[in-house]
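Quick one: structure tokens for this chain, please?
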Amino acid sequence: MTIKDRYEGIISRFREIMPSPQTELNYDTPFHLLLAVILSAQCTDKRVNIISPPLFEAYPNAASLAAAEPEEVFAYIKSVTFPHNKSRHLVNAARKLVADFGGEVPGDIDSLVTIPGVGRKTANVMLAVVWGKAAMPVDTHVFRVSRRLGLARNCTTPLAVEKALVRHIDPEMLPDAHHWLILHGRYVCKARKPMCGECPVSDFCLEHSQKKQC
């Protein structure tokens, strides 16, 4: 099977079974999505969705959060991973938005990555989810699944995986492909116990085919 055949088969199958994939993070504005994505680092979306409603109500915009202190924010997010660090990130991110971007979340990656707590993955999430831009965020799920399936087999870094996926997937499909890979990794192609018997793309999976040959 060629790499082209593998990509086309997997994308076609995902598009068939998940025609309208969405982020599992709850949000109402780009600003609140930014907060949710920062909070989701090494934390489940389920946990973030539990704690985010009162956080969003307390801080409806960047200006309100910029006026807060990390200790105040900590009270809302103490049940997530690394709450002390994330409290500082959220407040500093809001202050950066107010100081440099008029309180609005910028829509380009160069500006996004200047915001405290925002790395390339978070920036790409914002681009893909909010604006539907041709961006491919690579988290642990996307990294693992892409390598297992054979979409980025020899890539050893998140950036290398991102570049491989962007090179082979049509730009207009990238936002959906990001969700497909994340959801597949979250519920089927799990880190410790991949559910190969229930995998809808196992016939295109490089790792699965290698196991069958052993």
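The chain has a mean pLDDT of 95.
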